[in-house]
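User: Please fill in residues for this 127-position structure.
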């Protein structure tokens, strides 16, 4: 929960907008753990490359290293990555799970847990 809050807030103490936090049931193959230094080094990257100022790099017409890695992983069949959180205030244990490919069935199953049926049921409900 703390990491989700840090990611949503992005270091701005008074930025908080309406926010829905959900829990998910996940059973997914093909996940690359980029918090593992050996795995990251195998792609020729460092944690600094993952935490790069991607928006600035992209605005100058260049491809951020993290985007190039994402393209490579997707081409290799990766469905998701585990990455450190670089949100202001994040600590080493804070991580994000980012999906490129998911569905409600295996092998890339991601299902929201909504036992009490409180989430909106159609796109109009999210506007």
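Assistant: Residues filled in for all 127 positions:
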């Amino acid at each position: 929960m703390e990491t989700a809050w840090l990611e949503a807030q992005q270091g701005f103490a008074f930025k908080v907008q309406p926010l829905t936090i959900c829990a998910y049931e996940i059973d997914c193959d093909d996940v690359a753990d980029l918090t593992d230094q050996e795995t990251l080094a195998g792609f020729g990257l460092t944690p600094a490359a993952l935490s790069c100022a991607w928006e600035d790099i992209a605005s100058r017409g260049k491809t951020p290293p993290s985007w190039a890695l994402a393209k490579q992983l997707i081409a290799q069949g990766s469905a998701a990555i585990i990455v450190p959180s670089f949100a202001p205030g994040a600590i080493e244990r804070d991580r994000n799970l980012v999906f490129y490919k998911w569905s409600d069935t295996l092998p890339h199953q991601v299902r929201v847990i909504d036992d009490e049926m409180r989430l909106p049921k159609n796109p109009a409900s999210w506007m």
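For context: The chain has a mean pLDDT of 90.
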